[in-house]
Design a protein that fits this description.
With 231 residues, the protein is of the alpha/beta class. The protein contains 7 helices and 10 strands. The chain has a 5-stranded parallel sheet, sandwiched between helices.
Length: 231
Amino acid sequence: MKKSIYSIGLGPGDPELITVKAQNILMRSDVVFVPQSDELGRSIARDIVLNYVAAEKIRTYYFPMNNQRQELLQRYKALAQTLLEVLQTDATVTYVTMGDPTIFSTSIYITRELQLLGVEVKHVPGISSINAATALTGIPLCQKGEDFGVYELPKTVDEVTALIHRHHSTVFMKVGKRLNILVEAVRGVTPQSAILVQRIGLADETIYDLTSVTPPAEAGYLSIAIIKSRA
């Protein structure tokens, strides 16, 4: 019989934006693995989990924010092995991720490694930043007869422009250092609306209107953009 482990989406940052199912699983877990934001140990995920789990049940892990695939793969393998070892003590084990575990999430790669070790992963969906941003701003993502696309922000203005023209609504995630590319594309397209939400669900969340405001460079981190074309 396969051993199983839970992969839980925590939502965008507000501790109240997790599902009842996620809360119940967290509260009955013996060990909960949470990601660190950086090497100093900061962790938004840990702050959320602490609302439902005692600190002594929490273990943290860190993945560097880089594109060194070999290094990241080794870290995924190492974490999966650690999770398996804890699971073999008959503990109820959970690992969590911000947002949803199937949307641009490290959970996807951890899950693959666990499956190779014969571990069944039970996913618990989280409220994505996409849903949270549209609810916060009141901007409908799509209505009857429309469509929308979700993308990691491309590297060029032309690519961003083409994607905006492709859909009625376009969502860009992982904006990061490419914020200037997004702003330039928006100004060239003149869409119906274009908003950037930074640190959604957290105390310092900020909304920028990209059609008229140029956000500071740091606004690209922990942010999501929703563009509605005029088409």
